[in-house]
C-alpha cells in the first residue's frame, strides 16, 4: 500500500465458493469485492452436491445472488485453462446455475441476465479499477468489444452460451469476423 498509494484500493476475493450471508455482508462492509468462479457449478455441480456438501450447502455454493442482494458489485471468472473463459458461458452459468446433469444448484442464487452481463463487463472493470477505460461502450474508453449474433437480454438464459460472436474489436480495429 505504501508503494502504490491510492484512495480506493479494491481488494477482491476470488471464488467465494462457500461464503455465508454474514461473511458476504462483512466483505461488503470492508469494501472487499467478490468474484465468483461460477462455471464450477456447470462442470462439477453433481459431485459438489452429491459427494462434497449435500443439497443444503450446495444450494448456496458460489452465492452470487446473495452478494448482489446485499448490494455488492460482483464479477464472474473462469480459471482458464480449468474451464472455458467465455463470458457468455459464465453468464449462462450464473443465470441458470445448472450442472452438466441438468440439476439446478440453488435457484435462489440465480442472477438475472442484466446483472450477469454487468458482472462480465462494467462491474468486472470496476473490480480491477479500470471502469473509466473498460466495461462499457462509452466515448473515451478503449474500443475493445465483441459484436454478438443475438441480444443476450432477449435470449433465454439456458441459451446464452450459444450466442455466436460476429466480430471482435481491439482498440477500435476489427480482429475477427466481418
UniProtKB/TrEMBL annotation:
Domain of life: Bacteria
Pfam families: Amidohydro_3 (PF07969)
Full protein name: Amidohydrolase
Alphabetical list of InterPro entries matching this protein: Amidohydro_3, Metal-dep_hydrolase_composite, Metal_Hydrolase
Source organism: Roseovarius nubinhibens
Keyword entries, A-Z: Hydrolase
Key word Hydrolase present: yes
Domain named Amidohydrolase: residues: 3-176
Molecular function GO terms recorded: hydrolase activity, acting on carbon-nitrogen (but not peptide) bonds
Amino acid at each position: 500500500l505504501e508503494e502504490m498509494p491510492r484512495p480506493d484500493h479494491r481488494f477482491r476475493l476470488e471464488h467465494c465458493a462457500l461464503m455465508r450471508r454474514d461473511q458476504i455482508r462483512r466483505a461488503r462492509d470492508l469494501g472487499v469485492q467478490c468474484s465468483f468462479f461460477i462455471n464450477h457449478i456447470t462442470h462439477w455441480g453433481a459431485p459438489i452436491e452429491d459427494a462434497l456438501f449435500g443439497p443444503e450447502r450446495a444450494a448456496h455454493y458460489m452465492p452470487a445472488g446473495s452478494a448482489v442482494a446485499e448490494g455488492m458489485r460482483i464479477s464472474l471468472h473462469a480459471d482458464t485453462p480449468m474451464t472455458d473463459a467465455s463470458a457468455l458461458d459464465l453468464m449462462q452459468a450464473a443465470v441458470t446455475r445448472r450442472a452438466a446433469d441438468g440439476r439446478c444448484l440453488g435457484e435462489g442464487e440465480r442472477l438475472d441476465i442484466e446483472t450477469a452481463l454487468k458482472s462480465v463487463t462494467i462491474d468486472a472493470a470496476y473490480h480491477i479499477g479500470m471502469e473509466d477505460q473498460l466495461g462499457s461502450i462509452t466515448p473515451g474508453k478503449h474500443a475493445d468489444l465483441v459484436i454478438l449474433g443475438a441480444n443476450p437480454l432477449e435470449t433465454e438464459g439456458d441459451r446464452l452460451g450459444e450466442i455466436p460472436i460476429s466480430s471482435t474489436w481491439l482498440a477500435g480495429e476489427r480482429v475477427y469476423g466481418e
